[in-house]
Specification:
Length: 399
């Protein structure tokens, strides 16, 4: 394990799916500072893939993270990227052993579990970081900078939109891991805990005092299944399948982001136990959950939800999560102040500020996002890992 100013920060990855595998790439970027020395994941393909990436010896590759708990502490930190309802148990167990924790969002699915994680980390003097990576994106930082500068006066309202994307919602929240609240978490928590965090971040020291929320599961139920539609998209009559925007054949094979367009990453990579190709993806649609009709499943999470918030001093905010959109996670935000407003849509190269006094529009240019490993979320994944590694290496823990 590392000492201040000495050696590498060493890590264990618990959950080697998309997020855990992504964070492990930090070793490729900063090999002199960071090393993953163990991995635990129940899926053979996922743990073997990460093992190869980080050159982990066979005796440090595990099916179950519980196999590690009886050992003396042998790494500086643990990166926990399990499913939502499986966050608390490993976080508490590893904190009690003295490991610093990098915990994928949401930190837990209940307030009680969140508080227990924090309490145990405090009792054992370990550093806890929750992966709200969007705080590190250039546009989020620029909006906060403009607010803090007083350029738009006092913030009185924030309107925030999270357009999930019609096929993304079908993939993750109808067919996928987050389709049922009792097995994962509510869709708002799974998808928009980032967004609630951003609103509170932009509001600064003002605390949320009142909340109201309304949501509904629309469309994805048995009542909307077309007559004569099959239970699997590959078996569906062509005249029905061709008219369905949620067809698994379209999403995973024929059209973007399907395998035939050359995409071998998300979402097709989720379907198979090995590297995806046309044959393995087709077999997954024939036998697995991602090939089932979206109108035949037991999904119960909200497809759209609104949240209204009031903060100290009277400022208000509204958050809308909508599953039925063309845009996929291209967030839109408007911040209204007493002297101006801020506008931004994810993907723009500038944050727009309007000055009420002069009527002028100011375009605040953003740095181009990096390419390569950990470039996700506009480079925020890399920034998060930089901050986490620096804190551990230099014992510089913010309180």
């Amino acid at each position: 394990m590392s000492e201040e100013g000495d050696d590498k920060t060493t890590a264990i990855v618990i959950g080697a799916g998309m997020r855990g595998y992504g964070y492990a790439h930090y070793q490729m970027i900063m090999p002199e500072e960071f090393q993953v020395i163990a991995v635990a994941d129940p899926k053979e393909y996922q743990r073997n893939r990460l093992q190869m990436l980080c050159e982990i010896p066979d005796d440090m590759v595990f099916q179950d993270w519980r196999e590690l708990i009886d050992r003396d502490r042998f790494a500086d930190c643990v990166i926990i990227c399990t499913q939502d309802q499986q966050h608390k148990e490993p976080a508490v167990a590893f904190a009690k052993k003295g490991y610093h924790i990098l915990l994928e969002k949401p930190m837990a699915t209940t307030e009680e579990d969140c508080r227990e994680i924090v309490r145990v980390c405090q009792e054992n003097n370990v550093y806890l970081t929750v992966c709200h990576v969007l705080r590190y994106t250039p546009w989020v930082k620029k909006i906060r900078e403009l607010i803090d500068s007083g350029a738009i006066g006092e913030v009185v309202n924030i309107q925030h939109l999270e357009p999930v994307g019609y096929w993304h919602f079908a993939h993750s929240y109808v067919r996928g891991n987050w389709h049922k609240e009792s097995e994962s978490s509510p869709s708002l928590l799974a998808k928009c805990c980032h967004d609630v965090d951003l609103i509170c971040h932009w509001m600064g020291d003002r605390k949320c005092r009142s909340v109201s929320s309304f949501g509904h599961l629309s469309h994805f139920n048995k009542e909307n299944k077309p007559k004569n539609a099959a239970s699997r998209c590959l078996d569906c009559p062509q005249n029905i399948e061709s008219q369905c925007p949620y067809s698994a054949k379209k999403i995973y094979i024929e059209e973007s982001p399907g395998i035939k367009t050359g995409n071998k990453g998300w979402p097709v990579s989720v379907l198979t136990s090995g590297p995806p190709d046309i044959e393995s993806v087709t077999e997954a649609l024939r036998t697995g959950p991602y090939g089932r009709c979206v109108y035949d499943l037991d999904n119960d999470v909200m497809s759209q939800q609104v949240v209204n918030m009031q903060f100290t001093g009277g400022a208000t905010a509204s958050l809308s999560m909508i599953g039925f959109t063309e845009s996929v996670c291209a967030r839109e935000v408007n911040v209204f102040g007493t002297r101006g407003e801020i506008r931004y849509k994810d993907g723009m190269t500038d944050v727009v500020r309007i000055d009420f006094n002069t009527g002028q529009r100011h375009f605040h240019e953003l740095k181009a996002p990096p390419r390569g490993p950990l470039s996700g979320h506009g480079g925020a994944d890399r920034c998060l890992m930089d901050h986490f590694e620096h804190a551990l290496h230099h014992k510089d823990f913010p309180r």
